[in-house]
C-alpha cells in the first residue's frame, strides 16, 4: 500500500543547514519536504559574521549575500580586560549579514521548489527501513530518509534521548542590534570575565552585538543590563559600546543551555547536519559556514549513493560520518582549546602576551578553525 504523505527525504529544521540542503537537492528529481517550526524572516541569536569559505558553494546555488547588502569583512581585532588590543587581517575574510536576512534569502530561493511545512516535529520513528515523522498537531509524514537540521538544542534531541541533552550546559548567549559608529570591514571580539562579545556590522548598517557567557558569571548580576554595565564593561571597549550604542530591539534575544558537547553525525539513521551534528565555539566565527558546508557534504554523499546501482543505507551512513569527522573533527577540537584559553583570565592574559610578541599566531589559529573554499 502506498502511504499518504510519502517523501523521499524529509528535512527537519529550516535554518542555514536545512535550507541549503533542500536547495542543493531541489533539482535532482527527489520528493523533498522541509518542516520548520518558525515563519520567515526571523531573528536568531548569532554573531552574524560568516566566513568566506562558503561563498563559492553559495554562488553555485545562486545565492549572493551581497545582493541584500552584506558587509565585506577583512579585519579582526580582539581585546582583553586590560584593554590590550590585537589586530590582524582575516586569512579568508568574511561578511556581515543578519540571520533575519540570510536565512530568508535562501528561503525565498527555495520556497516554490519543494514543499515547506510550518509545524513543530515531535517524533521521528524509524521502522522497516522507513521513517514516520509526527508533528505537534498530529500530522504524520513518511519518508525513506530524514535529515536532522534542528539546530543546537531541540525538543527532538530530548525525544531521541541524545547524550548531550541529558547534561546541563553552563553557557548562555545574548544578542541585539544597535546603532553605533563601528568600522564596516571589521569583526571584533571583546573578552570579559566569563565570556566574550562579538561586534560586527550587518546589511542594515546596524552593529550586531552577541555574547556568550557562563551562567556562573551572569548569575551574580541576574539581569542583562546590570551584567553589561557592571561586568562586561570592565573591558574598556565594551564600556564604550554599552554606554553609547542605541539598542534597536526592544529586548535582546537570549538562549541558554548552549552545549558544545560532542554529538554523532548519524543517530537513529537520521543524518545530522549543522548544529545538530556539532556546534563549534562561537568565537571561531564559523558555525554558519560549517552548517552550510555540512549541507554540501551530505548532499554530495547522498546523491552519489543514490546513483549507485545498489544503494546501501549503512554504507551511506558510514561514509557521511567519516567525511563529517575529516572535515570538522579538528576544527571543533581547536575551537574547544581556544575557548578554554580565552575564558580563563590567567591563560587569556598569557595568550595575549604571546600573541603580542608573535602576532602571526592569530591568523594561524583562525585558519585551524576554518576550511578551504569549495564549490
Ligand atoms: C552565541 C552564538 C554566536 C554565534 N556566532 C556565530 C558567528 O558569528 N558566525 C558563525 O558562523 N556562527 C556563529 N554561531 C553559530 C551559528 O549560529 C550556528 O552554527 C548556525 O546557526 C547553525 O545553523 P543550523 O541550520 O544548524 O541551525 P539553526 O539556524 O539553529 O536552525 C535550526 C532550525 O530548526 C528549527 N527547529 C528546531 N526544532 C524543530 C522542530 N522540532 N520542528 C521543526 N523545526 C525545528 C528551528 O526553528 C531552526 O530554524 C554562533 C552561535 C552562538 C550560540
TrEMBL record:
Instruction: Extract the signal peptide range.
Output: none
Task: Outline the extent of the FAD dependent oxidoreductase domain.
Answer: 8-42
- Entries under InterPro entries matching the protein: FAD-dep_OxRdtase, FAD/NAD-bd_sf, Geranylgeranyl_reductase
Name the domain of life this protein comes from.
Answer: Bacteria
**Name of the protein in question:** NAD(P)/FAD-dependent oxidoreductase
User: What species is given as this protein's source?
Assistant: Aequorivita xiaoshiensis
